[in-house]
Amino acid sequence: MSSIIELKNIEKHFEDGKNTRVKVLRNINLDIKEGEIVAVVGESGCGKTTLGKLIVDIHPPTEGNIQYLGREISSLDKKSYKDYRLGVQMVHQDSFAALNPNKTIFQSLSAPLLKHKIVKTKAEALELISKYMEDVELAPVEQFLYKYPHQLSGGQRQRILLARALLVKPKLIVADEPVSMVDASLRISLLDLMAKMNKLYGISFVYITHDLATARYIANNGRVVVMYLGNIVEVNNINDAIQNPKHPYFKALLKAVPVADPTQKGMISQLPLKSMEIPNLKNLAKGCKFNPRCIYATELCESKEPELRELNGSLVACHYAESILGGNEHDKSGC
Ligand code: SF4
What we know:
CATH architecture of the largest domain: 3-Layer(aba) Sandwich
Strand content: 15-25%
CATH class of the largest domain: Alpha Beta
Bound molecules: iron/sulfur cluster
Order of helices and strands: EEEHEEHEHHHHHEHEHEEHHHEEH
Helix content: 25-40%
Largest sheet: 8 strands, mixed
Radius of gyration: 21 Å
Distance between the termini: 42 Å
Protein backbone atom coordinates (compact mmCIF):
# COMPACT_ATOMS: atom_id res chain seq x y z
CA MET A 1 0.00 0.00 0.00
CA SER A 2 1.35 3.40 -0.87
CA SER A 3 1.45 6.26 1.60
CA ILE A 4 -0.97 9.15 1.40
CA ILE A 5 0.66 11.21 4.11
CA GLU A 6 4.15 10.89 5.58
CA LEU A 7 5.30 12.91 8.56
CA LYS A 8 9.09 13.08 8.75
CA ASN A 9 11.00 14.24 11.83
CA ILE A 10 8.23 16.62 12.83
CA GLU A 11 8.67 19.12 15.65
CA LYS A 12 5.94 21.59 16.55
CA HIS A 13 6.62 24.37 19.04
CA PHE A 14 4.27 27.15 20.17
CA GLU A 15 5.11 30.39 22.00
CA ASP A 16 3.02 30.65 25.15
CA GLY A 17 2.91 34.49 25.13
CA LYS A 18 5.69 34.84 27.71
CA ASN A 19 8.46 34.02 25.24
CA THR A 20 8.47 30.42 26.43
CA ARG A 21 8.60 27.73 23.76
CA VAL A 22 6.28 24.84 24.35
CA LYS A 23 7.28 21.71 22.46
CA VAL A 24 3.92 20.21 21.60
CA LEU A 25 5.23 17.59 19.16
CA ARG A 26 8.68 16.05 19.15
CA ASN A 27 10.36 13.77 16.66
CA ILE A 28 7.18 12.54 14.99
CA ASN A 29 7.56 10.03 12.16
CA LEU A 30 4.41 8.46 10.80
CA ASP A 31 2.91 7.40 7.52
CA ILE A 32 -0.75 6.91 6.70
CA LYS A 33 -1.37 4.36 3.99
CA GLU A 34 -4.05 4.13 1.34
CA GLY A 35 -7.32 2.76 2.70
CA GLU A 36 -6.20 2.24 6.31
CA ILE A 37 -7.75 3.44 9.55
CA VAL A 38 -5.30 4.71 12.14
CA ALA A 39 -6.46 5.56 15.65
CA VAL A 40 -4.35 8.17 17.47
CA VAL A 41 -4.87 7.88 21.23
CA GLY A 42 -3.58 9.61 24.34
CA GLU A 43 -4.53 11.89 27.22
CA SER A 44 -5.43 15.57 26.83
CA GLY A 45 -2.38 17.61 25.93
CA CYS A 46 -0.47 14.73 24.32
CA GLY A 47 -0.45 16.56 20.96
CA LYS A 48 -2.91 14.38 19.06
CA THR A 49 -5.12 17.27 17.88
CA THR A 50 -2.05 19.28 16.86
CA LEU A 51 -0.87 16.25 14.90
CA GLY A 52 -4.22 16.19 13.07
CA LYS A 53 -3.99 19.90 12.32
CA LEU A 54 -0.51 19.45 10.86
CA ILE A 55 -1.76 16.69 8.56
CA VAL A 56 -4.35 19.09 7.07
CA ASP A 57 -1.90 22.03 7.14
CA ILE A 58 -3.88 24.15 9.63
CA HIS A 59 -0.53 24.43 11.45
CA PRO A 60 2.84 24.21 9.68
CA PRO A 61 5.53 22.15 11.41
CA THR A 62 8.35 23.98 13.19
CA GLU A 63 10.81 21.41 11.84
CA GLY A 64 10.61 18.40 9.57
CA ASN A 65 8.38 17.92 6.57
CA ILE A 66 5.05 16.50 5.54
CA GLN A 67 4.61 14.67 2.26
CA TYR A 68 1.38 14.11 0.37
CA LEU A 69 1.57 11.26 -2.17
CA GLY A 70 5.35 11.42 -1.96
CA ARG A 71 5.76 15.18 -2.43
CA GLU A 72 6.59 17.70 0.27
CA ILE A 73 3.53 19.93 0.78
CA SER A 74 5.60 23.07 1.42
CA SER A 75 7.00 22.84 -2.11
CA LEU A 76 3.79 22.03 -4.01
CA ASP A 77 2.71 24.35 -6.81
CA LYS A 78 -0.69 26.01 -6.57
CA LYS A 79 -2.62 23.29 -8.37
CA SER A 80 -0.95 20.40 -6.51
CA TYR A 81 -1.47 22.19 -3.19
CA LYS A 82 -5.18 22.57 -3.99
CA ASP A 83 -5.35 18.83 -4.81
CA TYR A 84 -3.76 18.11 -1.44
CA ARG A 85 -6.16 20.41 0.45
CA LEU A 86 -9.12 18.72 -1.19
CA GLY A 87 -7.59 15.27 -0.80
CA VAL A 88 -7.07 15.56 2.96
CA GLN A 89 -10.13 16.70 4.89
CA MET A 90 -10.81 17.22 8.59
CA VAL A 91 -13.97 16.54 10.60
CA HIS A 92 -13.92 18.51 13.84
CA GLN A 93 -15.18 17.61 17.28
CA ASP A 94 -17.52 20.59 17.64
CA SER A 95 -20.00 20.32 14.77
CA PHE A 96 -21.79 23.49 15.82
CA ALA A 97 -18.63 25.62 15.59
CA ALA A 98 -17.66 23.98 12.29
CA LEU A 99 -20.82 25.13 10.50
CA ASN A 100 -21.77 28.74 9.77
CA PRO A 101 -24.83 29.42 11.97
CA ASN A 102 -26.19 31.98 9.47
CA LYS A 103 -26.21 29.65 6.48
CA THR A 104 -28.46 26.75 5.62
CA ILE A 105 -26.86 23.36 5.20
CA PHE A 106 -27.22 23.66 1.43
CA GLN A 107 -25.49 27.05 1.43
CA SER A 108 -22.63 25.74 3.58
CA LEU A 109 -22.13 22.60 1.51
CA SER A 110 -22.53 24.12 -1.94
CA ALA A 111 -20.15 27.06 -1.39
CA PRO A 112 -16.86 25.04 -1.55
CA LEU A 113 -18.14 23.01 -4.52
CA LEU A 114 -18.80 26.17 -6.51
CA LYS A 115 -15.64 27.89 -5.28
CA HIS A 116 -13.38 25.00 -6.29
CA LYS A 117 -15.33 24.54 -9.54
CA ILE A 118 -16.20 20.96 -8.67
CA VAL A 119 -19.66 21.82 -9.99
CA LYS A 120 -20.73 24.63 -12.29
CA THR A 121 -24.27 25.32 -11.13
CA LYS A 122 -26.39 25.17 -7.98
CA ALA A 123 -28.47 22.42 -9.59
CA GLU A 124 -25.35 20.26 -10.01
CA ALA A 125 -24.38 21.06 -6.42
CA LEU A 126 -27.81 19.93 -5.24
CA GLU A 127 -27.48 16.64 -7.09
CA LEU A 128 -24.03 15.90 -5.66
CA ILE A 129 -24.92 17.01 -2.13
CA SER A 130 -28.07 14.89 -2.18
CA LYS A 131 -26.02 11.81 -3.10
CA TYR A 132 -23.63 12.23 -0.16
CA MET A 133 -26.42 13.20 2.25
CA GLU A 134 -28.02 9.86 1.43
CA ASP A 135 -24.64 8.16 1.92
CA VAL A 136 -24.46 9.54 5.45
CA GLU A 137 -28.05 8.44 6.01
CA LEU A 138 -29.68 11.85 6.13
CA ALA A 139 -32.74 11.14 4.02
CA PRO A 140 -35.03 12.43 2.72
CA VAL A 141 -32.47 15.14 2.07
CA GLU A 142 -35.08 17.94 1.76
CA GLN A 143 -35.70 17.57 5.49
CA PHE A 144 -32.14 18.71 6.23
CA LEU A 145 -30.84 20.79 3.33
CA TYR A 146 -32.67 24.01 4.08
CA LYS A 147 -32.28 23.96 7.83
CA TYR A 148 -29.80 25.97 9.89
CA PRO A 149 -27.26 24.16 12.11
CA HIS A 150 -29.15 24.97 15.34
CA GLN A 151 -32.21 23.20 13.95
CA LEU A 152 -30.34 19.89 13.78
CA SER A 153 -29.16 17.49 16.49
CA GLY A 154 -25.46 16.98 17.27
CA GLY A 155 -25.49 13.60 15.52
CA GLN A 156 -27.12 15.07 12.41
CA ARG A 157 -24.60 17.94 12.30
CA GLN A 158 -21.73 15.47 12.59
CA ARG A 159 -23.16 13.54 9.60
CA ILE A 160 -23.38 16.83 7.67
CA LEU A 161 -19.68 17.43 8.40
CA LEU A 162 -18.85 13.97 7.14
CA ALA A 163 -20.91 14.61 3.98
CA ARG A 164 -19.09 17.94 3.50
CA ALA A 165 -15.74 16.14 3.71
CA LEU A 166 -16.89 13.42 1.29
CA LEU A 167 -18.13 15.90 -1.32
CA VAL A 168 -14.60 16.70 -2.50
CA LYS A 169 -13.68 13.00 -2.83
CA PRO A 170 -10.87 12.93 -0.26
CA LYS A 171 -8.23 10.25 0.04
CA LEU A 172 -7.90 10.82 3.79
CA ILE A 173 -10.17 12.20 6.51
CA VAL A 174 -8.75 13.32 9.85
CA ALA A 175 -11.58 12.90 12.38
CA ASP A 176 -10.78 14.69 15.64
CA GLU A 177 -12.91 13.28 18.48
CA PRO A 178 -15.89 13.20 16.08
CA VAL A 179 -18.24 11.39 18.44
CA SER A 180 -17.24 12.86 21.81
CA MET A 181 -20.00 15.52 21.75
CA VAL A 182 -22.66 13.16 20.45
CA ASP A 183 -25.12 11.17 22.57
CA ALA A 184 -23.71 7.77 23.51
CA SER A 185 -26.58 6.03 21.69
CA LEU A 186 -25.55 7.64 18.37
CA ARG A 187 -21.80 7.10 18.60
CA ILE A 188 -21.74 3.58 17.18
CA SER A 189 -23.84 4.58 14.17
CA LEU A 190 -21.40 7.41 13.36
CA LEU A 191 -18.41 5.11 13.72
CA ASP A 192 -20.15 2.56 11.49
CA LEU A 193 -20.70 5.29 8.94
CA MET A 194 -17.00 6.16 8.84
CA ALA A 195 -16.10 2.48 8.53
CA LYS A 196 -18.61 2.23 5.67
CA MET A 197 -16.99 5.20 3.88
CA ASN A 198 -13.62 3.53 4.34
CA LYS A 199 -14.88 0.36 2.66
CA LEU A 200 -17.08 2.01 0.02
CA TYR A 201 -14.65 4.68 -1.20
CA GLY A 202 -11.30 3.39 0.15
CA ILE A 203 -10.88 6.59 2.18
CA SER A 204 -8.21 6.41 4.88
CA PHE A 205 -9.09 7.75 8.32
CA VAL A 206 -6.98 9.18 11.11
CA TYR A 207 -9.30 8.83 14.10
CA ILE A 208 -8.16 10.99 17.01
CA THR A 209 -9.54 10.12 20.43
CA HIS A 210 -8.91 9.68 24.13
CA ASP A 211 -11.42 6.82 24.14
CA LEU A 212 -9.84 3.41 23.56
CA ALA A 213 -13.19 1.66 23.16
CA THR A 214 -14.20 3.73 20.11
CA ALA A 215 -10.62 3.54 18.78
CA ARG A 216 -10.75 -0.24 18.86
CA TYR A 217 -14.21 -0.28 17.33
CA ILE A 218 -13.37 1.81 14.29
CA ALA A 219 -9.75 0.78 13.76
CA ASN A 220 -10.42 -2.93 14.14
CA ASN A 221 -7.72 -4.43 11.86
CA GLY A 222 -6.12 -0.98 11.59
CA ARG A 223 -3.28 0.54 13.59
CA VAL A 224 -3.13 2.43 16.84
CA VAL A 225 -0.66 5.25 17.48
CA VAL A 226 -0.18 5.97 21.17
CA MET A 227 1.02 9.46 22.09
CA TYR A 228 2.43 10.76 25.34
CA LEU A 229 3.40 14.40 25.90
CA GLY A 230 4.23 15.13 22.27
CA ASN A 231 5.93 11.84 21.42
CA ILE A 232 4.74 8.69 19.71
CA VAL A 233 5.48 5.90 22.19
CA GLU A 234 3.87 2.89 20.52
CA VAL A 235 2.54 1.97 17.06
CA ASN A 236 0.98 -1.40 16.34
CA ASN A 237 -1.95 -3.27 14.90
CA ILE A 238 -4.70 -2.25 17.35
CA ASN A 239 -5.79 -5.75 18.34
CA ASP A 240 -2.23 -6.91 18.97
CA ALA A 241 -1.47 -3.69 20.82
CA ILE A 242 -4.42 -4.16 23.16
CA GLN A 243 -3.62 -7.81 23.82
CA ASN A 244 0.14 -7.25 24.22
CA PRO A 245 0.79 -3.61 25.13
CA LYS A 246 4.52 -2.94 25.06
CA HIS A 247 4.85 0.57 26.43
CA PRO A 248 4.17 1.04 30.18
CA TYR A 249 2.05 4.12 29.43
CA PHE A 250 -0.20 2.18 27.06
CA LYS A 251 -0.49 -0.59 29.65
CA ALA A 252 -1.73 2.00 32.15
CA LEU A 253 -4.16 3.51 29.61
CA LEU A 254 -5.67 0.09 29.02
CA LYS A 255 -6.02 -0.52 32.75
CA ALA A 256 -7.84 2.79 33.08
CA VAL A 257 -10.69 1.65 30.79
CA PRO A 258 -13.68 1.11 33.10
CA VAL A 259 -14.84 -2.50 33.31
CA ALA A 260 -18.55 -3.31 33.74
CA ASP A 261 -17.82 -5.89 36.42
CA PRO A 262 -18.61 -5.23 40.11
CA THR A 263 -15.86 -7.64 41.21
CA GLN A 264 -13.30 -5.30 39.61
CA LYS A 265 -14.58 -2.17 41.36
CA GLY A 266 -11.73 -0.07 42.68
CA MET A 267 -9.23 -1.30 40.07
CA ILE A 268 -8.70 2.29 38.94
CA SER A 269 -6.83 2.94 42.18
CA GLN A 270 -4.39 0.19 41.21
CA LEU A 271 -3.28 1.73 37.95
CA PRO A 272 0.36 0.89 37.20
CA LEU A 273 1.50 4.49 37.55
CA LYS A 274 3.64 6.27 40.15
CA SER A 275 1.56 9.42 39.71
CA MET A 276 -1.79 10.37 38.20
CA GLU A 277 -0.54 13.92 37.48
CA ILE A 278 0.11 14.69 33.83
CA PRO A 279 3.39 16.67 33.76
CA ASN A 280 3.42 20.19 32.33
CA LEU A 281 4.66 20.41 28.75
CA LYS A 282 6.76 23.44 29.76
CA ASN A 283 8.64 21.44 32.33
CA LEU A 284 9.30 18.01 30.92
CA ALA A 285 11.52 15.45 32.61
CA LYS A 286 14.94 14.64 31.21
CA GLY A 287 15.39 11.29 29.51
CA CYS A 288 12.17 9.38 28.98
CA LYS A 289 9.29 11.85 29.40
CA PHE A 290 7.23 9.15 31.07
CA ASN A 291 9.81 8.39 33.77
CA PRO A 292 8.20 10.45 36.60
CA ARG A 293 5.08 8.27 36.30
CA CYS A 294 6.61 4.97 35.21
CA ILE A 295 6.81 2.12 37.72
CA TYR A 296 9.64 0.53 35.72
CA ALA A 297 11.86 3.63 35.50
CA THR A 298 15.58 3.34 36.19
CA GLU A 299 18.52 5.78 36.22
CA LEU A 300 18.95 5.12 32.52
CA CYS A 301 15.36 6.32 31.91
CA GLU A 302 16.14 9.58 33.73
CA SER A 303 19.12 10.36 31.53
CA LYS A 304 18.45 8.88 28.09
CA GLU A 305 15.35 9.35 25.96
CA PRO A 306 14.36 6.06 24.30
CA GLU A 307 13.94 6.05 20.53
CA LEU A 308 10.94 4.60 18.76
CA ARG A 309 12.25 1.22 17.62
CA GLU A 310 10.99 -1.96 16.05
CA LEU A 311 9.90 -4.79 18.33
CA ASN A 312 8.01 -7.89 17.13
CA GLY A 313 6.42 -6.03 14.22
CA SER A 314 5.44 -3.00 16.27
CA LEU A 315 7.22 0.23 17.22
CA VAL A 316 7.86 1.15 20.84
CA ALA A 317 9.83 3.85 22.67
CA CYS A 318 10.95 2.19 25.89
CA HIS A 319 14.41 0.99 26.99
CA TYR A 320 12.91 -2.06 28.66
CA ALA A 321 10.01 -3.04 26.39
CA GLU A 322 11.32 -6.62 25.95
CA SER A 323 11.57 -7.39 29.65
CA ILE A 324 8.28 -5.62 30.45
CA LEU A 325 6.52 -7.53 27.67
CA GLY A 326 7.99 -10.79 28.92
CA GLY A 327 6.93 -9.97 32.49
CA ASN A 328 10.57 -10.05 33.66
CA GLU A 329 12.00 -7.66 36.24
CA HIS A 330 14.86 -5.63 34.82
CA ASP A 331 17.77 -4.28 36.78
CA LYS A 332 16.45 -0.98 38.20
CA SER A 333 19.96 0.31 38.78
CA GLY A 334 19.92 0.97 35.04
CA CYS A 335 23.10 -1.00 34.48
FE1 SF4 B 1 9.38 3.55 31.73
FE2 SF4 B 1 11.99 3.72 31.29
FE3 SF4 B 1 10.42 2.58 29.50
FE4 SF4 B 1 10.34 5.21 29.90
S1 SF4 B 1 12.07 4.04 29.08
S2 SF4 B 1 8.62 3.88 29.67
S3 SF4 B 1 10.65 5.34 32.08
S4 SF4 B 1 10.83 1.84 31.56
